Structure formats: C-alpha cells, structure tokens
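SAMPLE LOG
Freezer: B-3
Tube label: C17
Construct: single chain, 344 aa
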Amino acid sequence: MGTLLKTTLSKKLGIPPSRIWHLAVMPCFDKKLEASREELTDTVWAGDGKPGRGVRDVDCVITSKEVLMLAESRGFNFFDLPRSNPNLQRATFPDARLDKFLFPRHAAHRSSQAAGSSGGNLYFTLQTVASKHPNSQIQTIRGRNADVIEYIVASSTGDPIFKAARYYGFRNIQNLVRKLKPARPSRLPGGKAFGAARRPNGKPAALEYAYVEVMACPGGCTNGGGQIKVDDPIIVERKGFATKPGPLEQKDFLAEVDEAYFSAEDSDGEEVISQSGESRADIVDGISPSYIRDTLAHWAGITGIDLGRLALTTYREVISDVGKDKTTETERVIQLAGKIGGGW
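STRUCTURE (predicted):
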C-alpha cells in the first residue's frame, strides 16, 4: 500500500516521494520492523540501485495502543467522536481507477468467521481450490485448542484434494515446527527413525499440508501485540472493573473485538465490476483475481515502473547469531529505522 501511494501520488501530483508522508496504524509491533526493510524504500522501485536513498514506503507505523496513548496525552476522548462514515469527508484519489479500487462503492466484502481474524488468505485459498472442483466440500477439524484448525478440501466422492491448516500463537507454532522437522535416524541397528510417521504397511502416506497460515499472536491479528488490551487504564475505567482484569476478562474483551471485526458492513452482494462495467466471471468469495491483476497493471502503467519491482519482495533467510559477537539483524534494522526518514 505504501508503495502504491507514494509512486502514484508522486506521478499524479508532480512532487517527489520525499514530500509525501505516509502513516500506517497497525495491530502489530513487528510492522515497524517490516516498514524499515530497505526493500520497502525507493531504493528498489526507483530503479537506479543507489543505496541509502532512504525514502520509505511507510514513514511511520504506530499501533492502536499507541494511538490511544497519544490521544490520552492530548486530552482527546475517542468515545466522544461521532460514528459517521469517514468516506463522506475524504479527498478523491488523483487516479479514478485506483480511487474506485481503494474506495469501492460498498464496504469490502467480509467473509464469515471461518476466514479467521488475520485477513483471510488461507480461507480464500481454500475457496479457490474448492471452486475448481464441482461439488467439493471444505472440512474443518479443530486441533488441541481454538488456535489450531486443519482444513481439507474433499471431492464429491470424499477423496482429499487439498490440505491446509491454521496455527496461531508461539506454542502452537512450536508444535507445528516439531511436526515438520525430518525424522532423526535411529542409532540402533534396524531401528525406525525418531519422529517418522507411523502407518500400517501398504497404506499410502497421508496428504501433506499444502498451505499453513501462521500468526505469532494467539487469536490472530485482532489480538496483536499492539492492540488495545482489557487491562489498559482507559478500558478498565470504561468498563468499571473493581480489580485488575485477568485472562478471562481479556478473552471476553477479545470476543468483543472479533465481533466488531466480523460485523463490518458487507457489500450488497459479491458482484465485482470491471472498469468497462462488466461483471467478472472469476469471483471467489467476493474477490476477482483478474480485476486485481488488471488494477496492478494499471498502476505499473501510471508509474512506468516494472510491476515486479513495485509489488514483489525477496525472501531472506534468517541466520542464527547464537554465540556470535556482532550486531544482530534486528538491532541493525532498529538502528536503520531511527536514521531513515524519521522515527517511529
């Protein structure tokens, strides 16, 4: 989003990206580190390869908890604000097609609670696979707790086609990693490898996970580390707690947050309209991949920059620094965040 805003506004308004300041409010403190990646600056998409240009796609990231703290410090009461639609007060985006994409006529389609509280990428993937197999069904199997769920797309005859899972919370992620580790060879002659899957002889191996949605926070993004918690003083005062709220109260509060998240306005149906006014035929769960691809191509055309440089990043393997006497990657990123384009 930051790249789209800075590249498009820079072209349309005729101003350098350094004069555009972008603030993002996020539920997670890790988004601060993400915004500090050098790949998410004009060093990459400007195309000249010069290091240290330092114009970030996102200049400042603050969490919802920090918004509340800032408001309190200024004597600002959120609960006095009207709940009117902010779209009525916004300025029009300088490109009509991107304006329609960013601010559709109706609120964005919101999937059911089965999509989870972290954006719904897994759920959309499941729906897409199911749409390619007529009469298939999505089966849900709950794990040890509510943050572990396994999904299987089964054909009309009941055969598994696609297997995926959702793991939220570090403890559950640790269990997932243990499952994914290769089996250790046994030291005993003829012994079976430790951790190897056990199945009767002659039976085929079970279907492996094709996709796993992993989130560090239990409950997903609505319970992110930067989110407002039930023990924040303003919430304690608002709810009239006589004692400090505990885990049970936090669970109830998170349920309220989830309810607000899932009860956001749905669009009037799932129809997605193209620029020419024609309905898209590839709609899955209210989303048209071809419409998104066409919009991205339009964006690249506006900027004159290759779409790969605009929309893609690379994977960087995390190298363990245990026992090494040098600055860690996290420390380096934090230092970088303080130098480039303002602080947090």
